[in-house]
Amino acid sequence: MSSYQKELEKYRDIDEDEILRSLSPEELEQLDYELQEMDPENMLLPAGLRQRDQTKKSPTGPLDREALMQHLERQALETKERDDLVPFTGEKKGKPFIQPKREIPAEEQITLEPELEEALAKATDAEMCDIAAILGMYTLMSNKQYYDAICSGEICNTEGITSVVQPDKYKPVPDEPPNPTDVEETLKRVQNNDQELEEVNLNNMQDITASTIIELCQAMKGNTHVRSFSLVATRSGDPVANAIAEMLRENRSLQSLNIESNFISSTGFMAVLKAVRENATLTELRMDNQRHWPGDAVEMEMAAMLEHCPAIVRFGYHFTQQGPRARAARAVTRNNELRRQQKKT
Predict the structure, then answer these.
(1) Which CATH architecture has domain 183-344?
(2) Helix (H, G, I), strand (E, B), or coil: what is residue 91?
(3) pTM for this structure?
């Protein structure tokens, strides 16, 4: 047995509990202080877990904020400004940098025949552009110039080399016209079950209130003629989603529902998905691009809903998880096959 092992043998039968019981409160506090595990490099931890507590000094009295501010202000005024080591006079020192001229090495110098030198000297910018395209130097021109040069046998783009840094000019695309739907008239027609009203489109109506959409959903419960209901980008949240869920439980004529690009959370998603299970007429549901990702549980519920609802043949949502995505794809494919077989029979 080595001497080190013999040294350790005398500590084998030590009673740690007896030693701890014999320590004074001050010694126990010091032991606890020494056994604290700190991680000073981890900036995500609070200060108490990065450095031991060193504030054992007892307070001298209650905090007087006004007196402290006056002391700091007086100290700042009495402190003299430090003189600059080199005072600034505005004088510019040194010589301005001049880019040295690079001499072309002899091995990089290219000498052309006199006829080619003369032709290149007289070539216009458009002709130089076509020559660059033929030689494969496409970095000297824009994409439009390059494809114009290689797709035609003659010079058709007269912009020239100097237009390389200029962007291509595109025709301005006019803004999408505002939604022409008259909300008040549409609400009355839905409430009166107008047989000529088959589509309710509220897309991109930023000024429509949630209460108005909820009133429309309540009117849709007994409507038997509307086939499509769309409220894309209407700032709708969970209250609207709950109203839609109530509508789906009673409506038996709606076939297409689009609630994309809104502020619906996972709670609203769950309400709509559970209501879709009780609806046998809805064939298309789009609910992508919400303000927040609904979560894994909602994506699993989407896949389960598609598996239990053979009527849904079009579903608009971009899954982030592979499992629900594969299940949803199989379910939609199966639903479309069932629809095709029903049409054949």
Answers:
(1) Alpha-Beta Horseshoe (3.80)
(2) coil
(3) 0.53
Query: In this structure, what token pair is assigned to residue 179?
Result: 């939604």
Q: How far apart are CA 294 and CA 244, in angstroms?
A: 17
Note down pLDDT in tens along the chain; length 345 residues: 567 677 777 767 777 778 878 888 888 878 777 766 677 777 777 777 777 777 777 777 888 899 999 999 999 988 888 877 777 777 777 888 888 887 777 766 667 677 767 777 777 766 776 666 666 665 666 666 666 666 655 555 555 555 444 566 667 877 778 899 999 999 999 999 999 999 999 999 988 999 999 999 999 999 999 999 999 999 999 999 999 999 999 999 999 999 999 999 999 999 999 999 999 999 999 999 998 889 999 999 999 999 999 999 999 999 998 999 999 999 999 999 999 888 877
- Are the C-beta atoms of 204 and 233 separated by less than 8 Å? yes
What letters, b where the CB count within 10 A reaches 16 and e where it falls short, cover 27-46?
eeeeeeeeeeeeeeeeeeee
Among 246, 249, 269, CA closest to 259: 269
Domain range annotation of the chain: 110-163, 183-344
Report helix, strand or coil for 194: coil
Whole-angstrom Cα distance, residue 289 to residue 128?
48
Residue pair 207/225 in contact (Cβ under 8 Å)? The answer is: no
Going 264 to 268 to 270 to 271, the CA torsion angle's sign is negative
Closest C-alpha among 124, 113, 160 to residue 141 = 160
CA distance 251 to 272: 13
Contact 130, 138 (CB under 8 A): no
3-state class (DSSP) for residue 128: helix
